[in-house]
């Protein structure tokens, strides 16, 4: 049997980041295995020492992945990391990095995804951020438009605009706020800089590595921050923080805001899509009370506590 292992990841950036926990453990428990990855977001796996080669799904070169590697793999050595088809996102009992390990057939060690920056990427982030005078907090308020400007997979994870504006207004005497995300996302009034759609994903990762902290909805930012040991605040509504969050971060949710909190809809193989009248469509909620219930006071209290904790380290 070939010692190759082929992994496909054809979902969101955050999900791809989480799979690196499983890839690390796969290489650790099977050191002679050669790992090949084909992904819609290959930049997540750049410079990963556990991976032999990364291919871009949808690009003609991915034929090499199938012809030269997939064919040689044994039955259980070609894995499509689609945990959504297994209802993991609503019924699981642990973090998604644990699910990634289960899909790869390896033991779960820790909830710790990995991203590997180049020195050039680190220098870029330090140079970009050095002009700010206060501790820098990155904020991601809305679902990234990963499928093109003006579209997003779902809006039910978004926090209310008034909350973001109040957070920035009341926190800017201590912090500088930089908004990150995809092209076409609403601009939050009062931020010191908005770089949505102006930086590559890799550059955004580098900013996370160099900033003080972050405040974000359940999206890529929280997963990337964990890879660098950067603690922040994550706002949860319909997503269950036990599954899609990380204990390392400060996870804010208001369970009494909705009788169906952490609904996680839609279920099955559609991710953030659902079938409505026979057509695929983005899933929406007419109320989103779970996100509306999160107040700026809740977030500011945690953000100020993080700053106090950091200050106490140097006393």
Keywords:
single chain, 315 residues, alpha/beta, Rossmann fold, 2 domains, 6-stranded parallel sheet, 4-stranded parallel sheet, 11 helices, 33% helix, globular
Task: Map the helices and strands.
Elements: E1 4-9, H1 13-29, E2 34-39, E3 53-56, H2 62-69, E4 78-80, H3 88-91, H4 96-104, H5 119-129, E5 136-140, H6 161-171, E6 176-179, E7 193-194, H7 201-210, E8 213-217, H8 220-227, E9 233-235, H9 241-244, E10 250-252, E11 273-276, E12 279-282, H10 289-292, H11 296-312
Parallel strand pairs: 1-2, 1-4, 2-3, 5-6, 5-8, 6-7, 8-9, 9-10
Antiparallel strand pairs: 11-12
Structural class: alpha/beta
Largest sheet: 6 strands, parallel
Detail the poorly predicted runs: 145-151
| Terminal residue distance | 58 Å
**CATH fold name of the largest domain:** Rossmann fold
Shape, principal axes of CA atoms: globular
Structurally, how many domains make up the residues?
A: 2
- Total number of strands: 12
Radius of gyration: 20 Å
Question: What do the pLDDT scores average to?
Answer: 88
